[in-house]
Automatic annotation (TrEMBL):
This is General stress protein 17M-like domain-containing protein. Residues 23-100 form the General stress protein 17M-like domain. InterPro entries: GSP17M-like_dom (IPR025889). The lineage of its organism: Bacteria, Bacillati, Actinomycetota, Actinomycetes, Micrococcales. It holds the Pfam family YflT.
Length: 167
């Protein structure tokens, strides 16, 4: 008997549960695993029975540049201007008689407060981090997991490779 927690609505596999089945193939990149599923889809394999499981997770931080007062002020001004634009547009939408000069003033005030906030927050964290970066989590291996009764069929189809186009 299968575990009822393993399935979500309408019999679809639940996202929070590691799928059960056999590993039919392993790949070094997510794109390669997707390509394998695409090739199985072209053979009318029931792809809803396949899961991609990433293993050996690693955190990768890419340094994107040096952080300075100028960059902190510029980034703060841009984000503050967006916030000012949003609030100004909300004001114009709910009160159509509002002068559009008020919208410009909201953008400028937002940019000024954003710049100030950017400089202050950089001043506080300056000693800890003097660079900007982007962090992501990547897997070193991506396994295709297929339920036991379909695993051999999937393995055979993947070993055979893509079908040549007729025509």
């Amino acid at each position: 008997m299968s575990d009822p927690r393993q399935f979500g609505r309408k019999g679809a596999p639940a996202l929070g549960v590691i799928p059960r089945g056999e590993t039919v193939a392993s790949y070094e990149s997510y794109e390669s695993a997707q390509a394998a599923i695409s090739s199985l889809a072209h053979t009318d394999f029931p792809v809803k029975e396949i899961s991609i499981v990433g293993s050996d997770l690693k955190s990768v931080e890419r340094v994107t540049g040096r952080l300075s007062y100028g960059r902190a002020a510029g980034a703060g001004a841009v984000s503050g201007a967006w916030l000012g634009l949003f609030l100004g547009l909300v004001l114009v939408i709910f009160n159509p008689e509002t002068n559009l000069m008020l919208l410009g003033a909201a953008v400028l005030m937002g940019a000024a407060f954003g710049m100030l906030f950017g400089i202050v927050s950089y001043s506080v964290t300056r000693k800890r981090q003097e660079y900007t970066s982007a962090t992501l989590v990547v897997a070193t291996r991506y396994d295709l997991i297929v339920g036991g009764e379909l695993a051999n069929r999937a393995r055979n189809l993947l070993e055979r490779g893509p079908e040549p186009d007729a025509g």
